[in-house]
Amino acid sequence: MCTLLIAYQVHDAVPLVIAANRDEFYKRPTQRLAFWDDHPDLLAGRDLEQGGTWLGVSRHGRFAALTNFRDPAAVLEQAPSRGLLVRDYLAHHQSHDAFVQRLCAEGARYSGFNLIFGRLDALFYFSNQQAGGVEPLTPGYHGLSNHLLNAPWPKLRKGMDGLRRWQPGQQGQVLFDLLADSETFPDALLPRTGVPMAWERLLSSLYIESPVYGSRVGSLLTWEKNGRLTLEERSYGNGDGPHEPRRFELAVSLANM
Which Pfam families does the protein's record reference (predicted)? Predict the structure, then answer.
């Protein structure tokens, strides 16, 4: 997952709205959004190479999403898969407090990453690329890509502006159209993350497309105050061909979280 646009506790009726793109090499095998056979309460896509995931929810009311931190120096050889952190949190292998302790104790073992996780009433942010540990996600609009939370990247600014214009009652297609925006930005506005400038340009858009790497799926999550959670996935057709949209609705009680 490489772009997350988040509206948290902004709309009374829909306290959580997340529009997200997953960017990945097309050749990496992937399972579409579904409940997992080996973890029946976990709803997510699946990375078939390492067994983890990039974004998902559980019937118990947990949410988690991960982005990689783009810095060649933050890539560690023989590091465990970052997507397994999302899987483990959603599969309820550990209590929330035990998972937080794990992040703080073991986060440095992984290549650079950011993680948003928690429940409808309490979301948290962690990056192993900054000091300070786990911090609560504050109410408001947030953007996360391949740097720290709310980095002033042009595509995040554009994405967050689009999310601010969306209101409950509008079609989700408005946000999927936003995720499909392929506008790139002038070099002077781009970050310098340690990759060649040609890649900075390519990766500067919300929707990315190249011969080998790009945006594979877009996701839209809405979590209403009454506990109704909707998660929809749209395939862009890159890597494994176009697919029909997938949409799941869950009734999640805060008492079960």
Answer: TANGO2
Domain architecture of the chain: domains with CATH: 3-256 (3.60.60.10)
Alpha-carbon dihedral angle through residues 12, 147, 181, 140, given to the nearest 10 degrees: 10
Q: What is the pLDDT of residue 242?
A: 67
What SS3 state is found at 242? coil
Residue 243's pLDDT is what?
Answer: 78
- 10 Å Cβ neighbour count for 153? 22
Are the beta carbons of 99 and 66 closer than 8 angstroms?
Answer: no
Q: What is the mean pLDDT of residues 75-96?
A: 94
User: Which residues make beta-bridge pairs with 251?
Assistant: 228
- At 126, list the tokens: 């962690």
What is the 3-state composition of the chain as percent helix, strand, coil, each rounded to the nearest 5?
Answer: 20, 35, 45
pLDDT at 237 (0 to 100): 79
Contact (Cβ atoms closer than 8 angstroms) between residue 155 and residue 145:
yes
Does residue 255 register a pLDDT over 60?
no
12 Rama sector, left if φ>0, alpha if ψ -120 to 50, beta otherwise: alpha
Phi and psi angles of residue 116, each rounded to the nearest 5 degrees, phi first: -110, 130
Q: Which helix H or strand E contains 21, and what residues bound it?
A: strand 16-25
Concatenate the DSSP letters of all residues of 133-181 into one string.
--EEPPSEEEEESSSSTT---HHHHHHHHHHHH--BTB-THHHHHHHT-
